[in-house]
Amino acid sequence: MTITPAVKIADRKVIVKDRTILTGVPDNVLVTSPSSSAGPPEGVFIGAQFNNEKSRHEVSLGTLRDVRFLACFRYKLWWMEHMTGDSGREIPLETQFLLVETKDGSHIESDVGDEANQIVYTVFLPLIEGPFRACLQGNAQDEMELCLESGDAATKAASFTHSLFIMAGTDPFTTITSAIRAVKLHLKTFRQQHEKKTPGIVDCFGWCTWDAFYKEVTQEGVEEGLASLSSGGTPPRFVIIDDGWQSVEGDPLNQDDHKNHHNQHHQQQQEEHLPRLTKIKENEKFQNKDNPGVGIRSIVDICKEKYGLKYVYVWHAMIGYWGGVRPGVGEMEKYRSSVKYPAVLKAVVENDPVFRDDSMVVQGVGLVDPRSVYKFYNDLHGYLAGSGIDGVKVDVQCILETLGGGLGGRVELTRQYHQALDASVARNFPDNGCIACMSQNTDSLYCSKQTAIVRASDDFFSKGPHVAHDPHRIGGLQQRVHW
Question: Where is this region: Disordered (predicted)?
Answer without folding.
Answer: 250-273
